[in-house]
Write a structure and sequence with these properties.
heterodimer; A: about 110 residues; mainly beta; 6-stranded mixed sheet; 5-stranded antiparallel sheet; about 50% strand; B: about 120 residues; 7-stranded mixed sheet; 4-stranded antiparallel sheet
Amino acid sequence: QQQVKQSPQSLIVQKGGISIINCAYENTAFDYFPWYQQFPGKGPALLIAIRPDVSEKKEGRFTISFNKSAKQFSLHIMDSQPGDSATYFCAAAHETSGSRLTFGEGTQLTVNP
Amino acid sequence: NAGVMQNPRHLVRRRGQEARLRCSPMKGHSHVYWYRQLPEEGLKFMVYLQKENIIDESGMPKERFSAEFPKEGPSILRIQQVVRGDSAAYFCASSPLGQGTGEQYFGPGTRLTVT
């Protein structure tokens, strides 16, 4: 019940295209859903996050869409750039019980020039 | 404002030795989390600490692993009698005091190699 499932495992997109990564969770107690970006040899960097009181959040080229009834959320990267090439992790947490993050398996994104 | 600092960045230990990983949270943060990332896998929660308290250690292996976050100084993750399966990247994250927020900021990690 603690799992977060992420897909696809890898994704190749052309420069200027839209990258879409999907996640699904089981635990209905989760109430915080961040996305992290990780470059090789680096730590994960918080990219954008959403809470269940909204269905969408946009920051620059990054958008989270959230579907509470389906227990799914997704990351959209608009106008993808080669510099976006990295591994992306979705995560979920139950803030009132300590906020430990449960991570998805990761998606390796490659944006071709 | 310096970010989360971890040292060493790389650590090589022989089987049976002890590994000590250090984490200094961001200034003003008193919540520390440790995660482990095995090769080609996602991050797995290990332990959540506040100053002088272990809040949640449900992700810690039952033996050989321990963590502390003293009143003064960095948080330390200690692995005794390391085995090859302990080879991984260990990340520390910190969160602000009192916010109860899930926002966690990660350090660069310590890459442990057990030979």
